[in-house]
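so im writing up the methods section and need the ribose-5-phosphate isomerase record in one place, dumping it here so i stop losing it
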Amino acid sequence: MAIPYPHFIASEKTAVETGILVPPPSSSSVPPVILTQDELKKIAAYKAVEYVESGMVLGLGTGSTAKHAVDRIGELLSQGKLKNIIGIPTSKKTHEQAVSLGIPLSDLDSHPVVDLAIDGADEVDPHMNLVKGRGGSLLREKMVEGACKKFVVIVDETKLVKYVGASGLAMPVEIIPFCWKFTAIRLQKLFEYAGCSAKLRTSGENGDPFVTDNGNYIVDLYFKQDMGDLRAASDAILQLAGVVEHGMFLDMATTVIVAGELGVKVTDKKVVF
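--- predicted struct ---
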């Protein structure tokens, strides 16, 4: 969907230089520039890459927004503007993308501390809690992004919600395939008070179960009401045998970059001493 985009507040010069935003004529009578949702994602991604420095170990996210960031990192490497970068991909798809761009890769076994991770999110609440994993890579994303010093989240403004689950879209839970129906029913019962329904994620015309990079299934939870205490909800999910991981990323983001009709907004996590 096209969104009116009258000006680019935070980094207009950078956006113009990289060719993702055309500077408007000086006349105030000219209508605002209209950008698609994907173009907004690209602007947020390019802003996030400004945090990248030569010599860093980077967590490379997965999804339509993170793809733009990985492309930009590859571009800067090829231009010689970034050097000695090591990427740790969060999915097989991102691994393939990074290899095609010539980004050197490694893993958490070799680099257990990651300097910076850049990734998108499916939901961001006012406290910078996230829902991730609608692309199916939540486990590897959480492993990599949980090991980083700085986690920059990039979204367009449609991903902002009042509370986790408020979009009415999926909050994914990765589970083992064994007796998946049993696990799905138990997950749904955990959140009956929030009007939760649990559905196995499928793929293809035959409706076969979607299989993650780790060989697991995903049960998507849909909420009609606020689930309440997120820490308690997280603990309850993880205590169920058969659950591998869930898509709530709580208190993990250090910076959220939002591209919207008024420009780019950067919010940093408040540090309490």
